[in-house]
Design brief:
Length: 443
């Protein structure tokens, strides 16, 4: 890997010199022009397109794993990345190597320049990487690509695919500056990925969201299969390292499915993933239950309530909005018997930090607020003001850097902990989760 690190650094710099993911112009013309120039690689394979507010990445990873369990070659495109930009594009479950990532970039960069010249605005970072993913999948070649929406759906750069199956994970309030300030408005953007005649797998939703999704699907002649009606979780039990599920799919029941992830929301994600694969494979009866069990048992979702250390237990979670925080808090309370849990929180400046802190307050005995390495990070002192309002000054520490914050949190967790049962939860952003993983690995 080190041999290609300088070249990967060059490519990443050239990509980052474009508009960042946080800066958006809601148009598909540039992306359409890029795909036409490249020969429309996004049409060379089947696609499962995944939109929603929370759970997109975990659901995408589950779909990918299940498809590979049925001997299909897969591509997976997810965002943002935790630690390396190469994570965004995976073939057969593995991120592109740095060498291959550089090769793909150099192959398609001339097409970027061609589109840039003909446009008033250059391709953005996200548009460019999306083009790279579609090219990599066609070159592999893959049988199926699992493509996660970046933001919204209707005008997202990924929405040039002709997906056989669309998946809508839970919709809630997030990215409101771009998507609207009501669940209905945001659902309209997410549901914009639905195409005529498509099969649509929809997770359990707020009533305002499902009304919008079903209305749009009916308008274009798509078929909706809803969690809790056509498929869902029959039961689940905690187990060492995860949970054991009974899932009702579209074509059968799958018992004794071990999922090495925590929380009811991950069980729901698993049900949606299973329904999507049942739909794509197109069988009249149930899938091979043993293959489903074998695949689900290997699912991973880094940075999603991930145990990275013990003594004390350190969990990393990429939660960045109140809806995600509610799911995380419930999962921690259900799966872990902490007597003392200390939070480390760092958020981006445009997020509902106050709402997130309010949800975590009953769960945490103490919180250490800090900031991550993003230029968009909320300053630690600003976050501290909010935390003191929620937790009280005696339960809040402030650290300028994440590594210091983790050290303080571990010390706090170990206070009077002669019998174990202490933990640390690091959360607030995907960027925070990725930075924490790197720091803890170095330690």
């Amino acid at each position: 890997m080190s041999e290609f690190a300088p070249e990967l650094g060059r490519v990443e710099k050239e990509l980052l010199d474009r508009w960042p993911e946080s800066r958006i112009e809601w148009k598909l013309e540039r992306m359409t022009a890029l795909m036409h120039a490249m020969g429309d690689p996004q049409l060379a394979y089947q696609v499962v397109h995944v939109a929603g507010t929370n759970g997109k990445t975990s659901t995408s990873r589950m779909i990918d794993t299940l498809l590979r369990g049925f001997d299909l070659r897969t591509g997976r495109y997810t965002s943002p990345h935790l630690e390396s930009i190469t994570e965004r594009i995976s073939i057969d479950g593995e991120p592109l190597s740095p060498q291959r990532f550089v090769e793909i970039y150099d192959e398609v960069a001339p097409f970027f320049e061609l589109v840039d010249v003909g446009s008033a605005i250059r391709l953005s970072f996200f548009e460019a990487v999306t083009g790279m993913a579609f090219a990599a999948f066609a070159d592999a070649p893959v049988d199926v690509a699992v493509v996660e929406v970046g933001m919204g759906g209707r005008l997202d750069a990924t929405n040039i695919v002709e997906a056989a199956v669309a998946v809508i994970t839970p919709v809630d309030l997030d990215h409101m500056v771009h998507l609207g300030d009501t669940i209905s408005a945001i659902a309209g953007e997410k549901a914009g990925i639905i195409k005529p005649g498509q099969n649509v797998i929809v997770a359990a939703q707020h009533p305002d969201a499902i009304d919008v999704v079903e209305a749009l699907a009916e308008e274009v002649g798509a078929t909706v299969q809803r969690e809790g009606f056509a498929f869902g979780v029959i039961r689940r039990e905690n187990a060492v390292g995860g949970q054991v599920l009974a899932l009702r799919g579209l074509h059968g029941v799958y018992d004794e499915v071990f999922l090495p992830l925590y929380g009811g929301y991950q069980a729901s994600n698993a049900a949606c993933a299973l329904a999507a694969v049942e739909t794509l494979v197109g069988v009249d009866g149930p899938l091979d239950a043993d293959l489903v069990r074998a695949a689900m048992a290997t699912v991973t979702s880094p940075g999603r309530l991930e145990v990275v250390r013990t003594s004390p237990t350190i969990l990393i979670d990429a939660t960045h909005n109140p809806a995600g925080a509610r799911a995380t808090a419930a999962a921690v309370a259900e799966a872990f018997a902490f007597r003392r849990l200390v939070g480390v929180v760092a958020v981006l400046g445009d997020k509902d930090a106050y709402g997130l802190l309010q949800i975590f307050e009953p769960l945490l005995s103490h919180v250490v607020v800090t900031q991550n390495e993003s230029p968009r990070a909320m300053p630690a002192d600003d976050l501290a003001e909010l935390a003191i309002e929620v937790f009280g000054a005696d339960r809040v520490d402030v650290a300028t850097h994440l590594d210091e914050a983790i050290s303080v949190a571990v010390e706090r967790a170990d206070e009077d902990d002669d019998f174990g049962g202490a933990g640390v939860l690091i959360t607030g952003s995907v960027i925070t989760a990725g930075e924490a993983r790197r720091l803890l690995r170095r330690r």
